Structure prediction request, 500 residues.
Amino acid sequence: MAVTETAPSAVTTAHAGILRRQSMRESAARTYARSLPIVPVRARGLTIEGADGRRYLDCLSGAGTLALGHNHPVVLEAIKKVIDSGAPLQVLDLATPVKDAFITELFETLPRAFADRARVRFCGPAGTDAVEAALKLVRTATGRSGILAFTGACHGMTAGALAVSGGARDGRVTRLPYPQDYRSPFGVGGARGSELAGNWTENLLDDPRSGAVQPAGMILEPVQGEGGVIPGPDSWMRRMRKITADRSIPLIADEVQTGVGRTGAFWAVEHSGIVPDVMVMSKAIGGSLPLAVIVYRSELDCWEPGAQAGTFRGNQLAMAAGAATLAHVRENRLAERAADLGARMIARLRGLAADHPVIGDVRGRGLMIGLEFVDPEAAGRTRAAGGTRAAEALEALEAAEATEAADVADLPGPGAVGPSPTNPSPADHLVAAAVQRECLARGLIVELGGRHTSVVRLLPPLTLTDEQAEAVLDRLADALSAAERAIHAMHGRREKRVPH
Ligand code: PLP
Prediction:
């Protein structure tokens, strides 16, 4: 089902020129642009149209910012209304009717027990700015400096946020195990795995010789997104709440990615019913424009004036777009819709996994879905060896596409090497990358994430229809088969070369 439209050559040339200039002029640190070499020129809902005339189903959604998809009419209307009114567009942190309406709508969506005694602080425009503000807030309020954070976390790219993220090191941050079923650090998932993760945390805090720095707060994602779509179990969330409350440690819930209906509840903390002390919000709250806030228990509000500031905290267009988005998600019960549709998509993907051993795990919550790719034949081999095999697979993918010589009937059968939650096969990021590339060839944009960049992530808009969901899953299944054919072709070539 590859996209077949043939673009006029002038258009193709312009498209190629833009991509070429991008690779020559933009930083080596560019990210999405490397794996998604497209040039979006128009977009609506789930669909992006490229400069080459091709259409793509966008399941990246601006890294989760587009709760309503691209250019939703209610968002455009809200933006136009502000522009037409002659209101100032940038007002630092001054009060405006637009901001007042945004705060009212935001508080309307929050759990009552939290909203009733909360303060809001507008931060610099990105999620990472709000994380910095939250860390500074709890440090100021408690007079302590340590932070409890979790393995695999992603909280942003500025120094403080990076320090509490999984890949970084900072003497003030104590790293705790995030529970997970598929690659459980305890060798056991489910309720027992959560319990052990909780025991670890409790033990560390109560051990006077644990080496942990006195914590000013704990920061967690209710579902780890960039870490590989790992939902924190509700029982574990409640345990973290109890452990922190018992020890007067403020709990910060980072809802930058999980908020605004994404996981099947308006805010992901609602699944467990916990009330955090601080919530960090960005991405979808700006209705596709940059906006970030923290909302926190008023008792923590012991900042001096100017203790946390920044120029860009008054983006009126983002507040208007955000308020319209929040209201639309709330009024149309899109969180419930995400829960229902997400569960059906996960069920279908699990069916697919049963027939495709390269899918080690399918997991998620609501419309935050991940498929972890593995090398099912690499059990007992080193990860490096698995990586080599995967590199060959990519090479073979290109060869197979060129010759179309692979025979689907010879693929490994269902359950040939089944995924095991206690002994999973090595992660295979190159196969995941191959699947992403085959998806793009079929007009489907997906994201990669996870500890080993081996998780294909789906973050479609909450407005996704059943038919669109089917189209997404059909393209994904087709892309997966293409990637597998390449692996099979590579094995065939190797067998011919090495007689048994
Ligand atoms: N927190 C979480 C949970 C995130 O997923 C991200 C980014 O993906 C951030 C914070 C940082 O947000 P930003 O990229 O807007 O700085």
Observations:
- The pocket of pyridoxal-5'-phosphate is lined by residues 63, 126-128, 131, 154-156, 221, 225-226, 254, 256-257, 282 (CB under 6 Å).
- The chain has a mean pLDDT of 89.
- The two ends are 37 Å apart (CA to CA).
- Residues 73-331 form a domain with the Aspartate Aminotransferase; domain 2 fold (CATH 3.40.640.10).
